[in-house]
User: Fold these one by one.
Assistant:
Number 1:
Amino acid sequence: MSKINDEMKRVLENSIWVLATADKQGIPNAVPIHWGKVLRDDKLMMVNNFMKKTLDNISVNPNVSVSVWKEKTGFQFKGKASVETSGSNFEAGRAMVLEANPKANPKGVVIVDLQAIYLTTPGADAGKKVD
């Protein structure tokens, strides 16, 4: 299994993320994520402020993809998603959002257990799985 390295963390920490899901018929849905965090080298967290279709999709198909890029460096993280509406991850995500916007109403967090990471940087290695 691929692990998040320092370069990936740099890109993740300074980028808008795009979370892609699909419903049970395979119809895709992709949404920008402003509030995300690396929990561990194999786990990402995103805060749910406005998700509806995304949560519906995860409930029937937990396979997700998260794409990020900064300048010319990009990565795609694939894994299984779950939703948490209480507990320490939720409280950490909630605090992250409320610090910047005290009027926000975070509803939960999406946790992605990573299964693979791919390079999306333009060039000969684009699409290559990162080991």
Note: The chain has one domain: 6-119.
Number 2:
Amino acid sequence: MGQKPIQVGKKEKVIGKHVYGNLYECDLNAISNEEYLKETVINAAKIANMHLVDIHSWSFEGPKGGISVIALISESHISIHSWKEYNYASVDVYTCGYKSKPMKAFKYILERLKPKKYNLHKVKRLGYKLY
């Protein structure tokens, strides 16, 4: 309340690039293989000129079963979450800095997971100078 949306102008500067999307009808073997997904994220970071700090993954059993892989990169993060039951994965690539290329990482992940359909969202994260 009382807050106004920021209008993009001279005071704003792009400080982050965010690419994310939903992947449908993926290669079931790809989204069911924890090591394959970890390798995919590691290579996506390299291809996109990002610097891997750490990576963790978790496999979830049960009717909805799936895998989550999250990589901390010095520029921010990359994540893949898969659901075998729905043959679906969500992908999130967020970077700060000017040399990283999150779209390259996203496209590489598409190549590896082979969805028949997907949607893609791109957002510029803005910093706002108060002076």
Note: The CA atoms of residues 45 and 112 lie 14 Å apart.
Number 3:
Amino acid sequence: MKLTAKARYAVMAVTDIAVNGTNTAAVSLSDISVRQDISLSFLEQLFGKLRRAGIVDSVRGAQGGYILARPTHEIRIGAVIYAVDGSVQTKRCAEHEGMGCVDKGAKCLAHDLWQAMEDHIKAFFDAISIQDVIDQRFPAMMSESGAEVDFNVLEMAE
């Protein structure tokens, strides 16, 4: 499973605004581009979606750029990812479109495994705010067996 560049870069850019901007001082996309080594044209595409999703607000003028639309503790990583990329998908099927994993719309044998993983990923991203990223504070989650899963030691595939 791999997160898209859109998702990764959107989280990086929103976090950059949180660290380098204020409620009144906007951060320019060109500054984010330089600091985070992300193409300016790519950022422009992402920020249209982030603005429409209510995650950032644009500020016009000589000191223009973007500010966060809400406090950092209210902006969830999941909202940022879903704004630019839809959802994280681990299955090859699209049940909501009536498409199955295999021929004739049926589920593959591992379908429920991939669905459970998708659910955990969504819950993980929805539990973490931009402020948590800044503070490097990532919540542990409980496995179905009741054991605590420490996401700080897990690595996502690049």
Note: Confidence is low (pLDDT under 50) at residues 152-158.
